[in-house]
Design a protein that fits this description.
2 copies of one chain form a homodimer. The first copy, chain A, is α+β, with helices and mostly antiparallel strands and about 375 residues long. Chain A has 3 domains: about 10-75, Arc Repressor Mutant, subunit A, CATH 1.10.10.10; about 90-135 and about 235-345, Beta-Lactamase (2-Layer Sandwich), CATH 3.30.450; about 140-230, Enolase-like, domain 1 (2-Layer Sandwich), CATH 3.30.390. Helix content of chain A is about 45%, strand content about 20%. Chain A has helices spanning about 10-25, 30-35, 45-60, 75-85, 95-105, 110-125, 175-190, 200-210, 215-230, 240-245, 255-265, 270-280, 330-350, and strands at about 60, 70, 125-130, 140-150, 150-160, 165-170, 235-240, 290, 305-310, 315-325. In chain A, helix 1 packs across helix 3. The longest helix of chain A has 21 residues, at about 330-350. Chain B binds a DNA duplex (30 and 30 nucleotides) through helix 3.
Amino acid sequence: MKQKGEGLSARKQLILRTVVESYIENGEPVGSKFLCDCGKFTCSSATIRNEMAELETLGYLEQPHTSSGRIPTETGYRFYVDLLLQNYNSAAGDVERIKSALREKRAELDSILTQASRLASTLTNYTGVALRPGKGNAAFAKFEAIYLAPRSLLLVMIREDGTAKTRNLRTDTDLLPEDAKTLSAALNACLSNVPAHQITLPLMMKMEEMCPAAPVLVRMAVKSVYEAASEGESGDVRLEGMDRLLGYPEYADTESIAGLIGLGDSKTELLDIVAQSEEGEEDDGEVKILIGSENRLGALGSSALVYKTVRRGGKIVGAVGVIGPRRMKYQNVISMVDSLANGINELISDDAPPLLPEKGEGKTSDD
Amino acid sequence: MKQKGEGLSARKQLILRTVVESYIENGEPVGSKFLCDCGKFTCSSATIRNEMAELETLGYLEQPHTSSGRIPTETGYRFYVDLLLQNYNSAAGDVERIKSALREKRAELDSILTQASRLASTLTNYTGVALRPGKGNAAFAKFEAIYLAPRSLLLVMIREDGTAKTRNLRTDTDLLPEDAKTLSAALNACLSNVPAHQITLPLMMKMEEMCPAAPVLVRMAVKSVYEAASEGESGDVRLEGMDRLLGYPEYADTESIAGLIGLGDSKTELLDIVAQSEEGEEDDGEVKILIGSENRLGALGSSALVYKTVRRGGKIVGAVGVIGPRRMKYQNVISMVDSLANGINELISDDAPPLLPEKGEGKTSDD
DNA sequence: GTTTAGCACTTGAACTCATAGAGTGCTAAA
DNA sequence: TTTAGCACTCTATGAGTTCAAGTGCTAAAC
């Protein structure tokens, strides 16, 4: 991932950078005359033309039509963006501002991310994106059945990381508050840290023995646990402020917007990216940028994605970022996304991760 | 809400109906010659022209340009749709099919609605919509603090209707399992069925007295309850399969799609509709149709919304439907939406509403 | 009174043609 | 290596034309 553009002469680099910036600013192809007149160069337009022709053969620039100015290619943007990231020192100036904006809505991670996505959209005028990877088929660490009424219980299932899921159980026969306690005990004894696929019939029978009072209840409870564990949190993607993109000329035609809408609908593609960066060797916790069709993200089409993962105690729990046209104002967006993610990181870390006592250490016992 | 078009002659009605159906089918303005040749009429095109001119002055038809065929106006569609609804007898044939498709994912209402929305989109090839109204500032009926670790608790807050919310609490000092019980008792004693705005300082002090062991914990818990109660479930809107709409010519330009995207983003407008139909005198539990800018739903633009509310025990708990172009295949869509909503109704009603024992009967005691 | 035939009229869509403008590539000179 | 100049390419724009569809209206027919 070293600088690809190292071989470029200083002038070529300057030209490339200027083309990118000008195109980002104006959205129009950049011609040699324009560059010549912009004051950054001492040479003539002809020289610039020659240089640009070379930059084109090198793959950094391209022409929409034979007789129009140049626009950056994907690799052109990549060069520019890598340059930016290299020189970017987390200003951290607006972290405070963003943090305070988020703190208003101190709540669960879920709603923080949604807020963040909205904030990202507002601050950059692109589409904000927030995502939370699925929790695979996470097992539950602890259970508690709460007695609500003679025929209804609330089953609380708590994961290792403290997040919980609830499910209502309703029986045909009357129960006593004691039954809830017995059920809790049985669940905790048999299903604690057992992943969905290990919930088998023998287990169920063992549990029924423990709760002779209400075998039907046990069966319902186990079924609920099984379902809740196997459906997992399927992960979630929030796209906010999609309509802002419609203001940009690159989304004038329906084609281009279609991909994005599909992205919001399918939701799996974006999740794959984060999952990928999670297992990838090189998630250095910095802002990452995907341009166009890099990394087989088809639906991103001609857009770019700038994002940063959010962590709690070293583990990736989500990501926030921005989706916009390829000619995005990367400077602002990078620093904004960085600050935003940092803000969330601080927020959820001093919110302190409520953890269960270490038990099975992730891996489950296979008794 | 009686038939507006009662005054129309049989032939005018037939013409109107045929225009609507043909326009729905082909998406092109309908001319007199086409109608004449379609076999339904014995008169000449000139006669039809005359009739159509009248239908235009009556407001049922309009011409995009002076010299093109006619297309239905909003009232034109309304006439057609009312006719359909009038003659529609819940076929209930495919309820079973839909129900079984849904039963696969037997889960909480939330996920049922999402599934339903996706199903609606697939079956009709329009955009599926599912919404769940917000639960105002609903108070909680019952609380339970679950001891997780010496410094962390899980607070479970349960509403009258059995739905629950959880929140993690984390303290700086070690707690005992007994503290969780005391806290639960105090919360149940003081905050049960108290709406957010009635959670005041005196109450908080009273509770601290009840839990002398950990005043900080009480303060955190009350704060969490207050936040959870006041933020309520803000309601939710799911739009699935928006990209399908892009295939229809009416969404060829960006303008028209913009409104829909905004609809998905803001989410409040659609919720307002259901809220409105909830309090409205005339929610007869049947399929309802909103066309274009009827009922001040600006963002719907040139689209139409077909939906039906979902109930549990008589109370509206959500709605499912379809958004598509004005020239939607209403016949299919109406029956599909009806079946879908019925399927959900059955599903969640034999899933049985787990209720708390009647206590404050909605109104809260103001001690 | 209602229906029909015929005709003039309007209008949008599609096509061609010409022009202007922008920017290039290339060659030859500095 | 840079520059000046020039021919070339391509797009966007606008005017002019034709074509087809469909109407509105009038006068005749049932």
